[in-house]
Each structure stands twice: as structure tokens, then as C-alpha cells.
Fold each of these.
Amino acid sequence: MLVNLNDVLKPAQKGKYAVGLFNAVNLELARGIIAAAEQTNSPVIMGTAEVLLPYGPLDEVSYYLVPMAKKAKIPVVVHFDHGLTKDACIKALELGFSSIMYDCSTDSYEDNVAKVKEMADIAHSYGATIEGELGHVGDNEGSAEGSSHLADPSAFYTDPKQAKDFVEKTGIDALAIAVGTAHGAYKLPPKLDFERIETIRKTIDVPLVLHGGSGLADSDFKRAIASGISKVNIFTDINIAAVEAEFKAFTSMDKGIIDLIPAAVEAIKQSVVKKLELFDSVGKAVPQSYDVDKIVAAVIQELLKRQ
């Protein structure tokens, strides 16, 4: 079923687990992601990012992402990640994406607030949710986002007090924070500022998002989630898993693409399953409409009416 970020992240925040976002720039990726989520009964977020549009145009990606989400047996958010332009974000909403991220993190703080506030109002008018970013998550060399070499990465980390002001002024539904991760594959193990995650979590109410998750140690994921992360973004891991599986399946030139597709889908599924287990979202695919407290309250009300 197609849902938005609030439907899956608020329960995750309350239950102290995380929901994974996995980019799906083609049908094989989407099939593997949905299969993994349904097998484990996990809520999931899938989508694409503006930097990935050369590999899968937004309108074409929407043709399979939105219908697959609606047909899925588990809650699926279709999310446009790292939207860099207003036009692209609005197009995603018009195409049926249930959530967007408007990334103005490299702008001045004042411009970031103003632009994200405007986009939050637009997204909410569509019944969609919006994620913002404060601080700046870096890019490893060779990542899809490009590369940046920061002499002091901590200078770009999210300030907890500013985070509170940002959330209150913009009205966003989730906040991506910079605490030591980077996009792409890591050459050296990252050092996450777990204390900063905990402080931000105590300072603001909206769910926190960790970008640049591929390549982190399992212990880092677990500690980050325990510290307050509710959404983790993954792409590099499943992207590589698909290619490795296709290489193994391509044993001779008499193979065609139909011989490679099943191998890629299965590898993506297995890679996603591992992450869902790690994020402790297995078995958590309870639709918001099935909220136990609401159901109990409704039953009690009905019984009282009959007395």
C-alpha cells in the first residue's frame, strides 16, 4: 500500500527501529526491494534522487514505483530523495510520489529555511510528506552525488539548537542530519557522532534520517538507531550487489539479459533483507489504519453506544 513518511517513521520512532530507503532506478531494483519487504513483513521506502535521473527519468520511474507501492502487501513510501530544484520536487508530487526531500543544505541557513518552508506547504497540499537536511552530508569520491574533500567534516555537522529552529520554522516531517556519514563507498571507516544524534533526538520531535548508510559497520547502524535514527538511506550496497550477481551469471556470450535479470533481482532482495533485519523493521509492517490504540478506542466507543 502506498503511504507517506509519517505512516512509517512515527511508529519507527516510537518503537526504536529504523525504516530503510532504497533507491530503485530500474524495475529490477524495485522488484528486489518489494520482495524483500514483503518476505520480512517490513515497511519500506523506495524511490530515486535527482542526481540519479540520468539513469531513470522521473516520469518513467514513476510508472512502476507508484503502482508497485499501491499493490504491495506492506506499507511502501515512494520518495524523491535529494531534490535539488523546486521544479523537480513539484513534478515528483504531480507524478504521485508520496514523499519528497528538498535538499537546500548547501544554501545559507536563511535560504534553506525559506525554500524548504515553501516546499513543505506545497508537499502537504498534496497529502505528501517532506524531509529537509540541516548541516551537510559529505560525498565520498566516486559517489553518485559527486565528491567533496573536507579538511574538517565536523564543521558541517548539524547543530542541535539550530535543528530545533529549523524544524519549527519549516514544518518538515523528517530531518536528515550530518553526523559523520557520507554518500557512496567508504575508503576508511567513518566515525559517527552518536552523542550528537542523541542530543538532536532529545531536542526535536520529528524523525531523524541518516544518509550515506552503505558501508557502515553493523554496530554503527545499531548504535545510530538506538541513539535516535528512524530512517536509513541505502543505495551503493544494493547497486553493487546487483552488478556482482550479473557478472557471476554472465558466464559466456550465449547469455542474454533475461538470464541476468533473475540473478540481479535475487541479489538485491537478499541485500535488502539483511538491512531490514539489521534495522529491526522485520514484522513491523502494520498499516497506520491498523493502529491498535485507535482500534481499541473505537471498539470501546461502539460498546458504550450499545449499552
Note: The CA atoms of residues 301 and 307 lie 10 Å apart.
Amino acid sequence: MATISDLSRGNYVRYNGEILQVEELQHRTPGNLRAFYQVKMRNIRNGKIAENRFRPSDEVDLLRVETKEYQYLYAEGESLVCMDNQTFDQIYLDKALLGDSVNYIKEGVTLLIVFENGTSPISAEAPPNVVMEIQYTEPGLQGDTATRTLKAATLENGVEIRVPLFINTGDNVKIDTKTGAYIERVK
């Protein structure tokens, strides 16, 4: 067990039976009251944010985690098969750990996977952006760069996103994996 004052941003803790990651940690000392810690934590399973107030002497279960890079190979049912590039060990990663960013990754990208006690993955993170090819979109017209109007486009993996009017079928685009938003066209 660790005290609240031992925590820092990014630590993983077990609190009320759930695994949470510390997003923000502030030590506050209001006027004539006792000092306290205001802690904002994100639930790993459902992504909800919880904000709690702790005394400096309160104890919490600090988890020992290990972060490794794995290469995404292919999807199999509700899992992703990933490989460690050093040992070539393969693991099955639940798609739910990646959230919505699972729609915007493709084979060969590197994922950061967090393990608790080296056994089971508790969290996974996709790269911040990825380059994908536009499979189909309505043809764009030359000079359609003046407005911020968007049109529908289908990516190589079948996911539909919104892109500017000047993007054509066959163009490569950079996409934000967290939101699925178009960033820029890639040559």
C-alpha cells in the first residue's frame, strides 16, 4: 500500500475494486482547513473519469505495471493478435482495451500495451495518428480548398470518415486515432 502523497500522474491504482489511472493530482491547502489531495482518475475499463478528495495519510493500492511495445498482426473475432518484436511472443488483446481507436489502426502498427504484474494486459494505446488510403469517395474538384466543407469517404478497412472536398479515391490521408478526424493528405 502507498499513501496518496506517493502518487504521481500516470500511476495505476486499484480503488473500490476498479483499476484507475491517475490523470491529475493536486495538493491543496485552503485557508484555515486541513490540506488534501484532489485526484482525477480515469477508469481503465469504461473510460469514465472519477474525481476524489483524499487526506495526505490515506492509503491506496498502487499497481506495478510494465509497458511494452507490440506489433498488431491481425484481428481474430473480438481480439487482436499482437507480437512482441524482441521475443516474438504473441498475445491476444481484447478490442475493448483500445476503445474507438481500434477502427483506425491497420496491420503492422505498434501498440503500447500495459501489463499488470507481467501477466494480463490492462490497457492499450494506439499510435497518435495513422496513414490510410481512401478506398472510395465522391470525386473532388480542383479549387475546392477555400471552404471547410467535408464529405464522406471510406477507408481501406471499411470505416467511414469525413474529409475535405479536394480528397479523391486513392489518396493517402493521416487520421487521428483517438477521434477518427482527418488531419492532412499525405503524398
Note: The chain has three domains: 2-62, 65-125, 129-186.
